[in-house]
Predict the 3D structure of the following.
Amino acid sequence: MKRIAILGSTGSIGRSTLSVVESFPDRFQVVSLAAGRNVDLAFEQAKRWHPRVLSVALESQAENLKHRLKSAGITGIEVVHGASGTVTVATHPESDFVVSAIVGVAGLEATYEAVKAGKTVGLANKECLVAAGELITAEARRQGKPLLPIDSEHNAVHQCLRGGQMDEVRRIWLTASGGPFLNTPVSKFVDITVAQALNHPTWKMGNRITIDSATLMNKGFEVIEACRLFNLPPEQISVIVHPQSTIHSLVEFVDGSILAQLSVTDMRLPILYALTYPDRIPSELNFSLSDLRHLDFSPPDMEKFPCLQLAFEAAKTGGGKTVALNAADEIAVSAFLEGSIRFQEIPLLIQEVVSETPVGKLESIKEVLMLDRSVRTIAAEKVASLSGRSPVSVGARKN
Amino acid sequence: MKRIAILGSTGSIGRSTLSVVESFPDRFQVVSLAAGRNVDLAFEQAKRWHPRVLSVALESQAENLKHRLKSAGITGIEVVHGASGTVTVATHPESDFVVSAIVGVAGLEATYEAVKAGKTVGLANKECLVAAGELITAEARRQGKPLLPIDSEHNAVHQCLRGGQMDEVRRIWLTASGGPFLNTPVSKFVDITVAQALNHPTWKMGNRITIDSATLMNKGFEVIEACRLFNLPPEQISVIVHPQSTIHSLVEFVDGSILAQLSVTDMRLPILYALTYPDRIPSELNFSLSDLRHLDFSPPDMEKFPCLQLAFEAAKTGGGKTVALNAADEIAVSAFLEGSIRFQEIPLLIQEVVSETPVGKLESIKEVLMLDRSVRTIAAEKVASLSGRSPVSVGARKN
C-alpha cells in the first residue's frame, strides 16, 4: 500500500492522480491533500478520500471547510491553509510518495520540503526544475530518493533511459506537437488571437501551459527540466516536432540505438508509472498500435518560435536566468491573455527581462522566490510600458 | 577483451561481425572461425585475424587451406573441417562469446554445443529458434547464460524489454517492411517473377531470406523465434507493417506504455549490441532523427500472405510443426528460385507438408535434424509432382 500526498489536488494533475488512486484502491491510499481555492471541490475530495490533512489557500476558506465537514459529520481531518499548510501536507510523516502538482512557484517550497523530508516525489510542477532545479535535484541526491517525472515527455525519457546507463546516453529528444501555429507562416503571427492560441491540437491543458505550447516556451521549459532531471547539458537535448504526440520522447544511446516511448495522450499513464515505479501494473490506458497509420516529424523552427531558443540559452547559463525565464514568461502570457500585449511580443518581453537579470547562483528556495518576485515586477512594468496601461498583477499566484 | 568465435564467418553476418571487431581492436579478439565453402575468403580471414582454429566445409578444402597458409608463412592456426570442425570452433575453450551465423540447420548442432559449453551466444541463425528453440533455450537457462538476438527485430525487442520485467509485458510487436509486394494486389501474385521477389525494399540479404521476406514467412519465423526467445505464447506476439524499417520492433507493457527501438538498417548495430551487452559503446552507426519525416504503419494482410498465418499456427503447436515449417519453406523457396513452382505455390506446398508432419516432441538436436531431413524429402517430392520434374536436392546445406 503506497501512501500518497497530493500538492494541487483540485488541479488537472491532482484530479487525474485521484482517478488513478480510485482505480487501484488496494494499492494506493490518500494521506494528505493540498487543494487550492476551489473549496467546493476540496470538500468533495475530503468526503471521498478522508485524508489526515487537507490544506486550502486561505484561512477563511479553511474555516468554511471545517464547518462544512462538521455539518456533514466528517471527522478526523485536520484542515490547514496557506504556504505552511501546503508544507504540512507535503511532509506528513505517514506519506511515502508526494505528487507535486501545484502550478507556479507556489509549489516550490513545499516540494523542496518533501524532498528534504526523504519522500519520493513525482514531479508535475514545472517550476521545481526550471527555477530551482539545481537545488531540488541536489537535495534528492543527498536523500538518495528518485525524482519521478509526471509529464509525458520526461516520463517517456525516464522509461527509455532504462535501456542503458546515463553515461551511455548521447542525446535526449523531446517531442513537441508544434502547437496550433506549426503551419502558420510567421507573417501571420501578428494577427494571432487569444482564442487561436488557446486551441491546442492534441492536449487539453490550463491556459498558461496552452499558450506556452503555442510559443514553444513549454518545450523550452522541458529542455531545462530535462537538463536538471537527467543531469545533462543543453547541448545533449534536442527537440523534434511530432504533431501526433504519439511518441512522447526518445533517448539516443552512444551506440546509435534510439529508444522511444509511445502511448495514449492521457496524464494518468505517467502518473501511474511514477506511482508504481519500478514496477508496472495493468491499466486500461491502451494505445491501439493496430490502428496506427502515420507519424510525422520535422525539426523545430527556432526563428519562428524564439522562445525555444531563449530557453536553450537560459539552460546553458542557469542560475538566475532560468528563474527569470519562467517568471517573465508567466507575466508575458498573462498579459497576452488579458490583451495587453501581442503574441509576438511574448518572446521579446521575456528576452529583455532575462538579459537584464544577473546570472547569480541561488543558494536557497528563498533566494529563488525573491528573485522570482523581483523579475515579475520588472516584467509587469515592461508590460505596462508596452501596453500603455497600469502594471498587471505581479504577485506569484497563491495556492 | 572479449574473445569471440564466429560460426559462419564468410557469410553476411560473419563479415559484419568481423567489421565490428575491426572497429574495436582493444575490445574484441577473434579466437575461432567457422567459414563455409568460400576458401579464398577463409584464407584472407585467417591472414587478417590469426584465429586459433579455422574450420571449412570439406576435408579437401582444409588441406588446400593448410598448404596456402604454410606457403604464406602463417603458422599457429589449426585447420579443421565439416560438422565436427564447426563444433570445435563453437566450443573452443578460449572463447567467451559465440556468434551463431551459419545459415540453415547446419548451424544447429554447433550452436547447441556452444550453449552447452557455457558460452554466451549471439544468435543470428534462425533455425536455432524456429526448429530447435525449446531445446536451445532450455539449455541456455540451465547454463544461466543469455541468448542474445542478432537480428534487428529481436534485438530491438531485447532493448525495449529493459524498460520492465517479463511479467509486465502485454505484447511484442514485430515490425515488417511488408516486402516488395506490400502494395501488389493479390490478383497480380500469379505473375510474380523471381527477380521481383528478390528486390527487397529496405534490406540487402541472401536469396532465401529475401524470398521469405516477400512471402512474410521471414516475419512468421520471427514470430516463432520471439516466442522461444522471450518465452511468450504466439497470442502475445503481433506483427505490424512498417515499410521504412526505422522502428525495428516494439514492446507493449501492461500499463499501456509502449517502447520502440529505432536505428539505421545496419546489422553491425545489433551485433555490437550483443557483443557489448549489458554495456553500450560509442559507434558511428548514427540514425539522424533530424532528417526523419514520416513513419507509416498498417496491419499485415494474412490472407494475402498466408505464410504468416501458417507460422502463427505452427508456433501454437510447436514440436515437429516448426521444424516442418522451416524445412518445407527452404525447399519451396529453392523450387521457386529454380523456377519449379510459382510464388503462390510456396505457402500451399508448406501448408501441405506441415499438416502431414506429426507434432511430436523433439528431445534432441539429432531428432530435429532427422525430422528436418525427412520433411525435406517429402517437400521435394511434392515439388517434383507439382513441377513434373525430378525432385530438387533435399540435403540440408553443409557449411
Q: What stands out?
A: Chain B touches chain A through 49 residues (CB under 8 Å). The first helix of chain B runs from residue 12 to 23.
